[in-house]
Amino acid sequence: MPLRIGDAACKRGPIRLGERTAWEPGGPRLGCSRMRGQFITFEGGEGAGKSTQVARLAARLRGAGHDVVVTREPGGSVGADQIRALLVEGEPGRWDAIAELLLVFAARRDHLRRTVWPALDRGAIVLCDRFTDSTMAYQGYGRGLGREPVDRVRHVAIGDFHPDTTLLLDIAVEVGLARAGARGGKESRFEHFDADFHGRVREGFLDIAAREPNRCVVLDATQGMDSLEAAIWARVAPRLASP
Ligand code: ATM
Prior knowledge:
Bound molecules: 3'-azido-3'-deoxythymidine-5'-monophosphate
Order of helices and strands: EEEHEHHEHHEHHEH
CATH architecture: 3-Layer(aba) Sandwich
Strand content: 5-15%
Largest sheet: 5 strands, parallel
CATH superfamily: P-loop containing nucleotide triphosphate hydrolases
CATH topology: Rossmann fold
Distance between the termini: 48 Å
């Protein structure tokens, strides 16, 4: 009989990793016994300025002597970067919502195993541009799958692994899309979805943050870059252990 999640006989998973659990159904385990670092994610719609703020926070943390890994999703490992190209390039209709959901989590699993979990295990602070909240917002709310299918696939793919802190950079859809459109490039698949889609994504992010106020902080992404950087630092700094 196949083993199912939660079966007592399924001895290899979930595996406790300090305060986190990495679901390892029958596969080789992660190779880390305890994750000591911090996992900080940046979320928000297009054009919110996440990558600038990730770079600024990384510089501040490194300046304070911390071991910092900067990464992003979809992507962040060789395999996940290959899947990224499938997701963000080409026609909007090339995948339906469920195929998109599965691709995103296939990429995420690889990214976690190869990049994020080993870094956390050695005690690094990992800054990640987008993570599972993007899946809930884009595939769950935007594409209309709803919360439940996203949660189910998330559980199979990554167990109950969650960020320690999530910084949601909130911006009006039309302002964000105008900023993103100005960047150009071939990674524009999601920009071709209509404004209603992006409106649902924004509402989705805000709903997620309202449901998890201890993990998520909502920041106004239309404020100046310096003041946004300061607001992020005010949230992150008190939670840092000494390097
Ligand atoms: P960036 O442009 O932030 O790198 O993200 C690429 C796209 O991937 C993003 N597009 N827009 N707009 C949203 C999309 N995406 C998902 O749809 N689901 C996910 O889980 C993730 C991580 C990204």
